Amino acid sequence: MNILIKNIKELVQVETEPKLKVSGKEMAQLNTIKNAWLAIDGEKISDFGSMDDWNGVEDWSDLEVIDATGKMVFPCWCDSHTHLVFAGSREGEFADRINGLSYEEIANKGGGILNSAKKLQETSEIDLFQQATSRLTEISKTGTGAVEIKSGYGLSLDAELKILRVIKNLKEESDLEIKATFLGAHAIPEEYKDDRNGYIDLITKEMLPIIEEEKLADYIDVFCEKNYFSVGEMEIILEAGAAHGLKPKVHVNQFTSIGGVKAAVNYGALSVDHLEIMKDVDVKALSGTETMPTLLPSCSFFLSIPYAPARSMIDNGLAVALASDYNPGSTPSGNMPFVISLACIKQRMTPEEAINAATINSAYAMEISETHGSIAKGKIANIFITDPIPSYSYLPYSFGKNVVETVFLKGKTQ
Ligand code: NIG
Ligand code: FE
């Protein structure tokens, strides 16, 4: 099917010279075409331009024409950090936090990641697949067209493989573009409490060979944090991941700055994610590198922890990506428009910077910016049409409201 969307009030994030990411000052530049048209041929964007230069189409057969008068068109968001294969929810801990317990205190009394791991171990693969499928439908409704999904709520050989197989099935069944990350090193399971090295051996010697053999993951992740995995432990795990062909995308600096950023950069990390607590040395370690700093403001919002210092990172020339962190403990939401609103409201990113961060830069953090993350000829037609809105800044401004009207994934209306 060929689709023509005409009379678009503004076509947002267009690229004539495709780039893989934008950094520093470049992030303030968002290219758009007012009064535009966009053509889709099968799964791809075939062409676009201004209505002033439009001379009609040669072949009107098998063509659906959509009139977008008053509406805008965006490329779909790329959500480059989620944990959306999980079992059940943790609103009991939410209430505990309101009553004064910290995230750390809840984890220490058996809540947190270990609580989710217990639930997941008792849940069947088919049930997990169904729960995750409905979350994918949910996030596509707010404009997400590509998503990275981590394991990490299994914490045993069987349960980690179960999650990764669910993600593999989702890749086959879903119209969203999906990347899989192995996060066996999310927490030390209870039975290895006194044998940390035993668990690290399980990850490196037993899980990773099967994951490579069955092609179950694209990346490797470690929760590098006080009370979770030290920098040295992360290095051992990343070294083993590299030996099995997996690039790092890691959780660092969520609660403390302990040197994880520099170590991850040294291991060629594709992204370093969270970064709520940043020292100058962490910013310096990222300067001039290919590693994408990825910020998760919904997590800060939900846990009431500091927001990553996006403003000073961008002012220091760094690139920044935005993602949701959708998971049952720290961010039970995959709503990217809300992430973008928070980035503007709480992190002083401009609407242009936030839209760049949630499209082209988050596509980079999933290594898909050649095919996703902008409106460009030949890219996959993952786009959405908004309700009638006055300007693109209205999207972050009208926080909590869904202005996404129609989503196309691989050229198909959802
Ligand atoms: O990215 N910080 C580590 N992992 C998740 C939260 C895990 C949980 O509380 O279940 C995160 O925030
Ligand atoms: Fe996370």
Topology:
Elements: E1 2-12, E2 32-41, E3 44-50, E4 63-67, E5 71-75, E6 77-79, H1 91-98, H2 103-108, H3 112-121, H4 125-141, E7 144-150, H5 157-173, E8 177-185, H6 196-213, E9 219-224, H7 231-243, E10 247-252, H8 260-266, E11 271-274, H9 280-286, E12 292-295, H10 297-303, H11 310-315, E13 321-322, H12 336-347, H13 351-358, H14 360-364, E14 383-388, H15 394-397, E15 404-409, E16 412-413
Parallel strand pairs: 1-4, 1-5, 6-7, 7-8, 8-9, 9-10, 10-11, 11-12, 12-13
Antiparallel strand pairs: 1-2, 2-3, 5-14, 14-15, 15-16
The structure holds N-(iminomethyl)-L-glutamic acid and fe (iii) ion.
N-(iminomethyl)-L-glutamic acid binds at residues 112-113, 116, 223, 251, 254, 299, 325, 327-330.
Write a compact overview of the structure shown.
This protein has 414 residues and is α/β, with parallel strands linked by helices. It folds into 2 domains: 114 residues, Urease, subunit C, domain 1 (Roll); 288 residues, TIM Barrel (Alpha-Beta Barrel), CATH 3.20.20.
Summarize the structure in words.
The protein has helices at 91-98, 103-108, 112-121, 125-141, 157-173, 196-213, 231-243, 260-266, 280-286, 297-303, 310-315, 336-347, 351-358, 360-364, 394-397; strands spanning 2-12, 32-41, 44-50, 63-67, 71-75, 77-79, 144-150, 177-185, 219-224, 247-252, 271-274, 292-295, 321-322, 383-388, 404-409, 412-413. It folds into 2 domains: 2-75 and 374-413, Urease, subunit C, domain 1 (Roll); 77-364, TIM Barrel (Alpha-Beta Barrel), CATH 3.20.20. The chain is globular, with a radius of gyration of 21 Å. Strand 10, helix 8 (260-266) and strand 11 (271-274) form a beta-alpha-beta unit. It is α/β, with parallel strands linked by helices and 414 residues long. Strands 1, 2, 3, 4, 5, 14, 15 and 16 form an 8-stranded mixed beta sheet that branches. The protein has an 8-stranded parallel beta sheet with strand order 6-7-8-9-10-11-12-13. Helix 12 packs across helix 13 (351-358). It is built from 15 helices and 16 strands. Fe (iii) ion binds at residues 81, 83, 251, 325, 327.
